[in-house]
């Protein structure tokens, strides 16, 4: 009997405050996976971006795209199963188009960015499993306030709403690989063991059905 191929890459997607980083840490510990996080603490553009989105939007998005590509190349070279906090798709299909539509990224910059992503897309593979944390605005606001990051104090409700609309469209159209949608509005997987167990059960069912 042929040996099952090893699952190499699980990615968690979701809006700002959906719980991606927390779930990444918990799943990494539970499954003994290697976590790859979004490095918000050392991002040289993030704070400036929230102060002046128009000026720094292109710089920020290119920085994210490059850091995400580096992560994907490391995953490909490594032998461990990796769980990734946020995906390269979110930068390209959600955050950049939203900034462009809001008039916060010029047409020239958006075209340049889109072509850059199109080139990168040919170099990388989709995750073996994409987990999407679907959350409504009240849940997102509550989570953002709880973690108390200074630069996130300026995030507007309409910005979060627009992002959620883009997420819904992207997930509805996602055909690049297996997808698990977890609705987190009525969950507290960080504090409630039963909620976390439900997510584990869903992931096990997905992984066992992959190969």
Structure characterization notes:
With 211 residues, the chain is α/β, with parallel strands linked by helices. The protein has a single domain, classed as Rossmann fold (3-Layer(aba) Sandwich). The chain has a 5-stranded parallel beta sheet, sandwiched between helices. α3 runs antiparallel to α4. The model has no long low-confidence stretch (mean pLDDT 89).
CA-CA gap between termini: 13 Å
Question: Helix and strand string, N-terminal first?
Answer: EHEHHEHHEHHEH
For the record, what CATH class applies?
A: Alpha Beta
Any idea of the CATH topology?
Rossmann fold
Largest sheet: 5 strands, parallel
The figure for the number of domains is 1
Number of continuous helical runs: 8
Morphology: globular
Considering DSSP H and I runs of 4 or more, what fraction of the residues is helical?
A: 55-70%
Question: What percentage of the residues does DSSP assign to strands (E)?
Answer: 5-15%
Structural class: alpha/beta
* Radius of gyration based on Cα positions: 17 Å
Average pLDDT taken over every residue:
89
**Fourth CATH level, the homologous superfamily:** P-loop containing nucleotide triphosphate hydrolases
CATH architecture: 3-Layer(aba) Sandwich
Largest beta sheet: what is the strand line-up?
Answer: 2-3-1-4-5
Tell me the number of strands: 5
Low-confidence stretches: none
């Amino acid at each position: 009997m042929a040996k099952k191929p090893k699952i190499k890459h699980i990615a968690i997607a979701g809006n700002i405050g959906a719980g991606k980083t927390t779930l990444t840490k918990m799943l990494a510990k539970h499954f003994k996976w290697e976590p790859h996080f979004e490095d918000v603490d050392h991002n040289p553009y993030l704070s400036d971006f929230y102060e002046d989105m128009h000026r720094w939007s292109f710089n920020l998005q290119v920085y994210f795209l490059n850091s995400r590509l580096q992560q994907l190349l490391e995953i490909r070279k490594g032998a461990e199963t990796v769980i990734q906090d946020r995906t390269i798709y979110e930068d390209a299909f959600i955050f950049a188009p939203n900034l462009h539509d809001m008039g916060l990224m010029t047409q020239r910059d958006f075209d340049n960015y889109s072509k850059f992503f199109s080139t990168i897309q040919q170099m990388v593979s989709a995750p073996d499993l994409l987990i999407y944390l679907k959350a409504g605005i009240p849940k997102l606001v509550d989570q953002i306030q709880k973690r108390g990051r200074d630069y996130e104090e300026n995030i507007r409700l309409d910005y979060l709403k627009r992002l959620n609309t883009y997420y819904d469209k992207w997930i509805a159209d996602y055909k690049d690989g297996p997808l698990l949608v977890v609705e987190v509005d009525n969950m507290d997987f960080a504090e409630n063991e039963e909620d976390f167990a439900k997510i584990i059960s869903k992931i096990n069912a997905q992984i066992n059905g992959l190969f």
